[in-house]
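Entry for the shared binder. Reason: the reviewer on the internal report wants the predicted structure included alongside the sequence.
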Amino acid sequence: MHARAAFPARRVAEHEPLVVGARDTVASGPSYRPIMGQRRRRSETVDQAAAPAAVRHMPLLDGCNDGPDVLDPTARLRSGKIEARSFAERVGSRRRASLARSFTRRVIATYWTRLQVAGVLVQLAPAFEAMDEHPLPPEAIRVAESLGAAASRLDSVVAGYYVGTTYAAMLPKEDRARLGAYYTPPALTDRLLDQATAAGVGWASASVLDPACGGGAFLAPIAIRMVKHLSHLEPEDILHHIGRHLRGFEIDAFAAWIARVFLDAALLPVCRAAKQRPAHVIEVGDALRGKPDGRFDAVVGNPPYGRVTLAPHLRHRYDRSLYGHANLYGVFTDLALRWAAPDGVVSFVTPASFLAGQYFRRLRTLLAGDAPPAGIDFIEQRKGVFDDVLQEAVLVTYSRKGKGGAAAVNFVRCADENTLTVASAGTFSLPADSSQPWLVPRDARLQSLVDRLRSMPHRLADWGYSVSTGPLVWNRHRRQLRAAPGKGTLPLVWAEAITGDGRFIFRANRRNHRPYFKPGPGDEWLVVREPVVLLQRTTAKEQSRRLIAAEMSRRFISEHGGAVVENHLNMVRPILRWPLVPSGVATAFFNSGAADKVFRCLSGSVAVSAYELEAMPLPPPASLGELRTLVERGAPAAEVERACERLYGLVDGPF
């Protein structure tokens, strides 16, 4: 995921001649012998049998074989990334970015030297802009050169991924977040491009844009697919076609150079046969500030994410998809629709939060009307897929020529950077009001449940409740926290008061937490004086339950005269004097496995938001008689659970 920069953008001439007879001299180091017969690791590399005749006869390259540290190149690259991060952490944050660039440049120089074939030596592509140099200690030089040697033994796309993620790992955290430098593993890249293919993208003729191309995770694989589908053309015609049909934008000039290097590496056999370089297809600049012309058959990539404050003119430009706070990936999704042709396809890796989040309601409406989803893949793991990111992510392909019919839903699980498995989870259809959260099955067994939910009209308001977050942001009222009760104090209810098994225990046992609060003048809005149902505001999909609720009872409120609820809890509050569903019954319902299944089909992030709770399809109040009877007589949990399952028609299903 990669962020933005300001124009003017920079591109270079259409084609350059191949440079013969001179090796790259960017970094000093030993002169390495080229060895023939490079081993390729991925199916999307240049297929020699399918390539043009001049390319088929070009020998592929082997990597070096001069040390045990590169006998397993992927293991070396993984361990080397850890070493590189360690080097970077030893210097001040102001120097880390410079060190990251110098180290990565040394890696790439060694990598490129190892790729050369005697007699046809291709110079390393020049950087997009001058780079400040950071002196590398001998140990860092040794590690960098060993990583370059290891990378030269791998497929160019895999090599580019490891080199790009090493560069990103060395950056200061704030720079990495600003640049959005979280690169896509090759297995996910291939899967997303397969989605685009299924949606109708033809790689022999399609024009393709990556508006935030970073280190080139998508550009090189796309170019390789183009080569495969253009095998009937001469090498120079292939390069000309790619130069006219492939584009990328990127904020970070150094990352853009990495992308160009590994795009060149992917096309080396074709370049040697054509005796020329590929065209420069990458622009260093801000895609959001450009003028989309709707000419690309496919817009693909992994856009940056994170809340952002847009300049007023950009806020106005993208107003159609904004509701409240802007998130970069939502803005880039809007941008992609502007770049895509009227019958084009958009294929993005993004967080899953747009599926239900309140701030994405206008984006959902835009997508439903302009480019309905053709396929949704949930990435099963939140951790370990994108370096240093803990985020539920999806691969989604949108088709501007789509009719909004059922879209395939799958779960993908990455075994490693290069391998994944796919499991079907069912299908997805847009709701009648497309601004509302999109209900998507998270398991093949949930398809029938999702189908029923689409026809269930009742919501929490029909039960007599609304939802709001706890009003107290404690660090804004630090001086009013108290360790013991006293005159004018009220209980302060923190998230730990709600136990994992759904009980309310008044306690404050975490650091900086105090059990009491003393309201001051004007603080009445912080005080809760009626019984409410409290729910944890943050839970992860890995937990056994996403909804964890407990009742703050009328007895507790009466005993203390009220309470103050901290911001990490949701409050389900009555909007009627006598809600149609008692708070104790509502609590038991929220704590059920049936309610948990429903919420999982709705939620796209770790947040349990008030908006999503109010949007949950619920059984009609009149149908809760059995559940109410069970709760009032203190029935066993298993009986309560079965009653909740019957409310959603699950009792005769596979659950």
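Summary line for the report: Residues 35-440 form a domain with the Rossmann fold fold (CATH 3.40.50.150).
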